[in-house]
Automatic annotation (TrEMBL):
UniProt cross-references to SUPFAM superfamilies, sorted A to Z: ATPase domain of HSP90 chaperone/DNA topoisomerase II/histidine kinase
Keywords assigned: ATP-binding, Kinase, Nucleotide-binding, Phosphoprotein, Transferase, Two-component regulatory system
Domain spans labelled Histidine kinase: 265-367
CDD domains: HATPase
Pfam families: HATPase_c
GO MF, one example: ATP binding
A biological process from GO: phosphorelay signal transduction system
Natural source organism: Candidatus Magasanikbacteria bacterium GW2011_GWA2_37_8
Name of the protein: histidine kinase
Catalytic activity from the UniProt record: ATP + protein L-histidine = ADP + protein N-phospho-L-histidine
Entry EC number(s): 2.7.13.3
Enzyme class: transferase
InterPro entries linked to this entry: HATPase_C_sf, HATPase_dom, His_kinase_dom, Sig_transdc_His_kin-like_C
């Protein structure tokens, strides 16, 4: 296996990406985006608000390159060279300053609420899982197929966490002008929805790590052995077969990060004590369409939402947690979806579909 099959993102690549985003030369000293180059990062973001999205794309390119290596690791003759390439790419990811440093102060609480757990999982699994295991294998004279499968299992866990983190950070960067705004509602309009579908699938069902990949590349999702999250009696993920078959072609008018962030909050609320059903929590996420729109419906069998709360649920001051400040998860979700071209509805009870509560997101298809 030749070195060119495992290219790192060089300094020149970083410059091209970041210059397209309007970044200054002072912010692109090297591909790792060193801390010393970020003294005036928030001022730079105000001048160049597309910069954070360029950084997400830069890191995502690293993940895609690592994913490609692990997809083919069993077939590669020179596995040692391949793992060294993974180490180089991984180091640039884990040594990079925190992306939340680009967020305005009034958006940082939303990071703590929605994104921090995914970020910690990615970094910990990289440092204490993948890189330690790679170092251990590189110290050996040789390694076998079982060693390869072990690395692929670790990578499968990292990559699913990364994709959730990436989309939620995208949603936070969309709020650069304020928590209630959508900086650029056209973000993701040119990206097919397949990767979003896979991430929503993982969010609802999880997997047992017996297969590698699957979120970055859609062809492997059917290999997962799925099981519901521990905190539910039953979790369902349903998708219209026509949508699944066209997932790599269909595009929607709303940024993907907004859909994942909202769905994640629907789930975390549904399983909370005081909201979930005492007889056993059942949740469902169903993806359908009405020809012109993608429809994402999250439903649960919990205690329902009183009429007087339905008009308050998207206010930043509203919370169902006693003696705690207002909730962050769904704050402004209704107005933000409207600004991006979609809408969100609260149906409680959902008598037509047989659920206590359903949150229904309707999103126009692009170029339909």
């Amino acid at each position: 296996m030749h070195e060119e099959n495992f290219p790192m993102i060089k300094m020149s690549d970083s410059k091209d990406i970041m210059r397209k985003a309007g970044a200054s030369v002072g912010l692109i000293k090297d591909a790792a985006i060193k801390e010393s180059a970020l003294v005036n990062r928030r001022n730079e973001v105000q001048k160049n608000p597309e910069l954070p999205f360029a950084l997400l794309d830069l890191f995502d390119d690293h993940f895609k390159k690592i994913d490609e290596i692990f997809c083919n690791l069993g077939k590669i003759d020179n596995k040692r060279e391949a793992l060294l390439a993974v180490k180089d790419l991984s180091a640039e990811i884990v040594e990079t300053p925190d992306l939340e440093k680009y967020l305005p102060k009034d958006v940082l609480p939303y990071f703590e609420h929605d994104a921090s757990v995914f970020k910690r999982s990615v970094i910990v699994m990289f440092k204490n899982g993948l890189l330690e295991e790679i170092d251990s294998l590189l110290d050996q004279q040789d390694f076998d197929d079982e060693d390869v499968r072990g690395l692929q299992d670790i990578w499968a866990g990292i990559i699913k966490m990364w994709d959730a983190y990436r989309l939620i950070m995208e949603d936070l960067f969309l709020r650069l002008k304020g928590p209630d705004d959508v900086f650029d509602p056209t973000i993701d309009r040119e990206k097919p929805v397949g990767r979003l579908f896979n991430t929503l699938h993982w969010l609802m069902n999880g997997h047992n790590n017996k297969k590698t990949g699957g979120i970055l590349t859609g062809e492997r999702h059917n290999g997962y052995a799925l099981s519901g999250p521990d905190y539910t009696e039953k979790s369902e993920f349903k998708i219209d077969p026509e949508l699944r078959s066209k997932a790599d072609e269909l595009k929607i008018a709303v940024p993907h990060g907004m859909v994942l962030s909202s769905s994640s909050n629907f789930l975390s609320n549904a399983v909370r004590k005081g909201i979930r059903s005492e007889s056993g929590c059942v949740v469902s996420l169903e993806i359908t369409h009405d020809n012109k729109n993608l429809v994402v419906s999250f439903s649960d069998n919990g205690k329902g939402i009183p009429d007087e709360e339905k008009t308050k649920i998207f206010l930043p001051t509203f919370t169902t947690k006693k003696n705690e400040p207002g909730g962050k998860g769904l704050a402004f979700a209704d107005t933000r979806f409207e600004k991006a071209g979609g809408k969100i509805e609260v149906i409680s009870p959902d008598e037509e579909r047989g659920w206590s509560t359903t949150f229904k997101i309707t999103i126009p298809f692009v170029n339909n």
